[in-house]
Design brief:
Chains A, B: GO terms for molecular function: DNA binding; DNA-binding transcription factor activity. Two copies of one chain form a homodimer. Helices cover 29% and strands 34% of the residues of chain A. By secondary structure, chain A is of the alpha+beta class. A six-stranded antiparallel beta sheet of chain A has the order 3-4-5-8-7-6. In chain A, β7 (200-210) and β8 form a beta hairpin. β6 (173-184) of chain A pairs antiparallel with β9 of chain B, so a sheet runs across the interface. The structure holds a DNA duplex (19 and 19 nucleotides).
DNA sequence: CAGTGGTCTAGACCACTCC
DNA sequence: GAGTGGTCTAGACCACTGA
């Protein structure tokens, strides 16, 4: 029993809603009912319900109750950090990762600027191509500060680097900033991706921070235009 | 005094951090200190701090304290519903809105599908071009269900439709789903925008829902590739 | 060890919706 | 009026950090 009460309530309902066991439009038990059925306090129940609201599962209306939303169309919420491996599992297509390079090298001026270090300082560079159903769709270029990540190998790069960082190195990833824009394709893009003559790529820049607020990774994800999609769930800030 | 205590604490610190009055890296007063200095309870203080966390202003570390993050590079968070008018204010460039059409018409099959109604049912259609520094960059196509929005005029379309909906019609906008993808430019795009020969546009589909969970608006925002940017702040979900 | 944030409790009053 | 969610209180115990 290491799970919190409110986490457990949240997980229970999140599962039921995601699996469709509780259909959209259903009214959830009131906070008072949940309070007694879980024999806990109301603030704890409210914490669980607010989590459900934030994740887009339910909608609360004052004086009426909590209602399950229709998340059927929410294909995959990329909001929240999502790595390629998690994503490909959700999409359920045949995918493959081709590691192009895993080296520790001197930072170019533009990379140094992104990582907030000096040009020429050493950085780990990992370049990977993501193949989806036989087509090379995504080019991932990752850069890590070597004071945080000492060693990287091709084997690690082929799997999930995040798993390695979190479970082996015990780095706690805290938050990230994403920027999405469209740029002209580079020679590298044309060489490594199946662009089919497309002149631009979607560029997702990702700045990843640790718990101590230090930036330690910068990633450029270069997507083929026609295969890119980003879904966001937004709540009106009152 | 209609403002909540926790809202007021949040606003105070959000302003100070955004204005730079509290620089990044600063340690905020502890929850106990805030508790007594605002003469309120700790849970209330925590509500305010959690809001600051969710908005990316601060970072809490157990056993240490709350620290101000470096949001200097967070240009404008488009996460959270942001209308064009809000956005243009933040960018601070000269912008103009050109209303192309404001009519009540029969829904085409694709629009009907998006709005979850039958083809041919009446919908309000508003088509606007956004001009930034003399160039026509964005094409906004809005569709409203007429059972919610009875009347729209060109004057309203030229201003902020959201203001009208919320303040005059008292519609409560609750949440929205955004999809970002890239599509081939249509003849309409080429006619209404200054595409400079670009063959594709960034398409932002926006589904807006009311408090009673009914979908009432669908918007297509078609952006010129080279002027599009989207910034997202994401927290690792534990 | 003292200080920090994370969780939880058992109450309270309010604003709102629906009948 | 009864029932709902929104806010708030004054405590409590825990896990973690740092000196």
């Amino acid at each position: 029993m290491k799970e919190n009460i409110y986490q457990s309530i949240f997980n229970t309902y999140a599962k039921r809603i995601q699996s469709g066991k509780i259909p959209p439009g259903t009214k959830l038990p009131s906070e008072n009912e949940l309070m007694s059925s879980y024999s806990t306090s109301r603030e704890t129940v409210r914490k669980a319900l607010n989590l459900l609201v934030q994740h887009g599962f339910i909608q609360k209306i004052r004086g009426k109750g909590s209602y399950v939303l229709d998340i059927g169309r929410m294909n995959f919420p990329v909001t929240g950090l999502t790595s390629f491996k998690e994503m490909s599992g959700k999409i359920g297509r045949s995918t493959r990762t081709l590691v192009q390079r895993t080296v520790c090298t001197g930072a170019s001026p533009s990379i140094a600027d992104c990582l907030q270090i000096e040009p020429g300082e050493p950085v780990w560079e990992v370049i990977r191509v993501r193949e989806i159903e036989g087509e090379r769709i995504i080019l991932d270029k990752d850069y890590f500060r070597p004071d945080k990540v000492v060693l990287l190998t091709e084997e690690l790069a082929a799997g999930s680097i995040y798993e390695y960082l979190e479970q082996t190195l015990n780095l706690v990833i805290s938050y990230a900033k994403k920027e999405i824009s469209v740029e002209e394709a580079t020679d590298e893009d044309r060489a490594l991706l199946d662009l089919n003559g497309l002149t631009h790529v979607v560029l997702v820049r990702n700045f990843v921070f640790l718990e101590d607020t230090t930036l330690f990774q910068y990633t450029e994800s270069r997507h083929r235009l026609d295969k890119f999609q980003f879904v966001d769930f937004a709540r009106r800030i009152p």
